[in-house]
Specification:
Layout (H helix, E strand, L loop, with lengths): L13 H31 L3 H7 L6 H6 L17
């Protein structure tokens, strides 16, 4: 019979690292989805004149939300939490 005097940390295995990486990927995807939905909601609340002022039409809202950093003018929608 032996007695354990100390506790040893169990090192992360490759499987544990992959599982945690998958959760981090899912979390990042969920956060990205939330930002897109906030942006779409904010843009839908603007009037047609306001949308024209920023250079998009109502029909382009979904495209702009999905491709925030693809803008021919070089501007990038940030998707901040204030929308």
């Amino acid at each position: 019979m032996s007695t354990i005097y100390g506790v040893t940390a169990i090192p992360r295995t490759n499987l544990a690292t992959r599982i945690l990486g998958s959760f981090e990927w899912c979390r990042a995807a969920a956060l990205e989805w939330r930002q897109r939905e906030r942006l779409k909601t904010g843009l839908h609340q603007l009037s047609d004149a306001e949308l024209i002022d920023i250079g998009i039409s109502r029909g382009e809202i979904d495209y702009v939300a999905m491709n925030r950093c693809i803008d021919p003018r070089g501007a990038c929608f940030s998707g901040d939490s204030d929308m």
